[in-house]
Design a protein that fits this description.
Rossmann fold, 15 helices, eight-stranded mixed β-sheet, alpha/beta, globular
């Protein structure tokens, strides 16, 4: 079977959609399928095209066995950066599916943004093959609830595109049961819907580097690391990690001295977080620039605890994809959010669920683990066992390919 994936994001970028479909593609290739991806030039999350990809409008490459067609994307800073990025990829990817010599039996388009679904629909119509819409979040609801979008015309435009895609898709895969329920409430036929959650390549943690790269040089081998790895942006609520470190320093200085608070990644609020570190005098906070996934996994595995935080939000269906990677590391997860993600961690007994928006509660959870390392080890082992049984990407990829084979057949 020949599978075409349309995704605005793909490795070497990091993030949920890139990791999800890179791992799926590796498993599909191992099953004997061919995988082609139509994507943009890597620039996420900083909005800067990666070295080696600059100055081009279109290129083809083979990335880990996947035939990748990279399309022009407009990158810039400012309020219009994201809308222009989405619009430019819509245009360039549409031209690609129209004029590139793509061979495929089925199309998978992954959203958000919903504009990515439109070239997916066009690709499916062009060869009269089915399209699966892979939905990782419901737009525009998610960004309206977060306060990032208030313009009624743009909201209406996104709603119209999303409803069109729901009608045109042969099947829709959602990453949580909550999103499936919401789509049924919006009028999508239940028989169209399948839940294929996010997950993790559990085996990747068995083959991590023995030594961390030089970028981790500030980490002390004897310290207990509380590590966040991912995008440094506002919805993550990362300021609570720094404020929790400050609270621990002020209330439990001996415990603070045992720990280091590690922030791996890049993003739009990186400078703001570094300024907060300096303002609060947090000498135990360490920033590490974006790293390859195997290096991140190695650091998570060596950490004392791993951090997944979100600002307080209205929806209860979000399960951050990184929660599975954090549990696969075998270390306890300190999860500062609610909803379905919190329920997942409780079911796994894989760490501590913490009140969203409270730096003091996060600091208290850190202190409990620092006083009781055996509990940290037990929760880490429980989380690892849980994802190995239920959320291994190999199992999820097989379920996805079974669905695609059924449609293509």
């Amino acid at each position: 079977m020949k599978i075409l994936v349309v995704s605005q994001f793909f490795p070497p970028e990091m993030g949920a959609p890139a990791g999800r479909f890179h791992d799926f593609a590796q498993n599909w290739l191992a099953q004997g399928h061919e995988v082609t991806a139509v994507t943009g030039f890597p620039n996420f999350p900083a909005g800067v095209i990666h070295e080696g990809y600059r100055g081009r409008f279109y290129m083809k490459e083979v990335f880990d066995g996947v035939k990748v067609h990279r399309c022009w994307i407009l990158t810039m800073s400012g309020r219009l950066s994201r809308p222009l990025s989405y619009a430019s990829f819509l245009v360039s990817s549409t031209l690609c599916v129209l004029f590139a010599r793509l061979q495929y039996d089925v199309v998978v388009a992954t959203i958000p943004p919903p504009t990515v679904g439109l070239p997916g629909v066009l690709a499916a119509l062009r060869k009269r093959v089915p399209m699966v819409l892979d939905l990782r979040d419901i737009w525009p609801e998610a960004i309206v609830q977060s306060g990032r979008l208030q313009n009624p015309m743009i909201i209406g435009l996104f709603e119209g595109i999303a409803n069109f895609l729901y009608r045109r898709a042969a099947r829709i895969t959602a990453v949580t049961e909550g999103w499936k329920t919401r789509l049924v409430e919006k009028g999508v036929p239940a028989e169209k819907l399948h839940v294929i959650s996010n997950g993790v390549d559990v085996g990747a943690f068995d083959d991590v580097p023995a030594e961390l790269p030089p970028a981790f040089g500030e980490l002390e081998a004897g310290a207990r690391w509380f590590t966040y790895a991912g995008i440094l942006n506002r919805p993550q609520g990362l300021e609570y990690i720094l404020e929790a470190a400050a609270h621990l320093r002020d209330q439990e200085p001996d415990l603070y001295a045992q720990a280091q608070f590690v922030m791996i990644g890049e993003g739009p609020i990186e400078a703001e977080l570094k300024a907060l570190k300096a303002e609060r005098g947090l000498d135990r906070v360490v920033f590490v620039p974006r790293q390859p996934r195997d290096a991140v996994y190695a650091c998570l595995q060596r950490s004392f605890g791993v951090l997944v935080t979100l600002r307080p939000r209205k929806d209860t269906s979000t399960v951050p994809s990184k929660i599975y990677e954090c549990m696969a590391s075998g270390r306890p997860v300190l999860y500062q959010a609610g909803g379905e993600g919190a329920n997942t961690l409780r079911e796994a007994d894989g760490g501590a669920v913490i009140e969203p928006g409270s730096a003091e509660a996060l600091a208290d959870a850190m202190a409990r683990y620092l006083r009781d390392p055996a509990a940290a080890d037990a929760h880490g082992a429980s989380g690892r066992a849980y994802v190995s049984g239920s959320y291994d990407r190999r199992v999820l990829a097989r379920r996805f390919s079974d669905l695609l084979e059924e449609l293509a057949g």
